[in-house]
């Protein structure tokens, strides 16, 4: 009896199937990423035209830092995957120097993440809409490789969210507090930065739950909406608190944020993370961990984190409560924007129940909230 490719695909368990819905969501994610970067660059150009060179440099710097970090990790992972036949979509190790040079050129030009998007979309289209029946036999392994590509991409998007989208959102809220007015481009930049970060968080959690054999994929609809609301509230309250403190004393608050990043990075060094295969990329990863820890909890090595997570959220609870109180007492009167942010901060703050965590690419444990995930 001959079974059609579509029938064999339907015979796969739902948790083992890379669905068409995921494929279309990948297109939506790509469009959101492009619009987020485009609005930030447009905003930087606007600042240049208005003579606000400092804000232009900061706005563009966040874009550049996020872009550079994702290119570094993407290229390093490509090189590792070429040596791993299980992760190579062509089914064999690629050692051609020309291929490596071509990949390096794409990443130097900042096209690494777009290359991954196109690779996932093309491979997904070939598997979900096969032209012949020759693909049906390897459905299970092919879908596993698609999930590996999606997991890599979700990890890169998570890095980009904490290095570009959230710092960008913090900067624009600070400028809104300082000047009391906001342009349409600024509103667009803040909206797309928040949307991009929210998408990255949910997609990261869903992909890494899917990669664990002991856990089921996060259900759609209500559970995903609840998780998104929870992360939206905790991270947004943190950003609003930082913005209020920056408005009170820009230099002191910026220095404090730098210290928080340094402490988070040192914590990753103390734990001796082994996420990457090379020392340089591992140190870069630890620096990224420091940036993530400035906004939310990140389980770096997947060990028991009850004590560190409790201390972390106790500290951030104190910051979230103290920031609006200090702003109300010390900031100049008549600032309606600041009062609105202070009220919003108190409404958004919620008791912590978990955090985002490290890991990401298939071998070492980490944690996302209460869910153990895998690392590279």
In short:
By secondary structure, the protein is mostly helical. It is 71% helix and 4% strand.
Would you give an account of this structure?
By secondary structure, this protein is mainly alpha-helical. It has helices spanning 5-11, 20-49, 53-82, 97-108, 112-128, 139-179, 184-210, 222-248, 250-271, 279-293, 306-330, 336-348, and strands at 298-299, 356-357, 364-368, 371-375. The protein has a two-stranded parallel ribbon with strand order 1-2. It has a two-stranded antiparallel ribbon with strand order 3-4. A hairpin with a 2-residue loop joins β3 (364-368) and β4. It starts with a helix and ends with a strand. Residues 1-12, 350-358 and 362-375 have low confidence and may be disordered.
Q: Going across the biggest sheet, name each strand in turn.
A: 1-2
* Low-confidence spans: 1-12, 350-358, 362-375
Supply Rg: 22 Å
Query: Residue share in helices?
Result: over 70%
Architecture blueprint of SSEs:
Elements: H1 5-11, H2 20-49, H3 53-82, H4 97-108, H5 112-128, H6 139-179, H7 184-210, H8 222-248, H9 250-271, H10 279-293, E1 298-299, H11 306-330, H12 336-348, E2 356-357, E3 364-368, E4 371-375
Parallel strand pairs: 1-2
Antiparallel strand pairs: 3-4
Give keywords.
376 residues, mainly alpha, two-stranded antiparallel ribbon, 12 helices, disordered C terminus
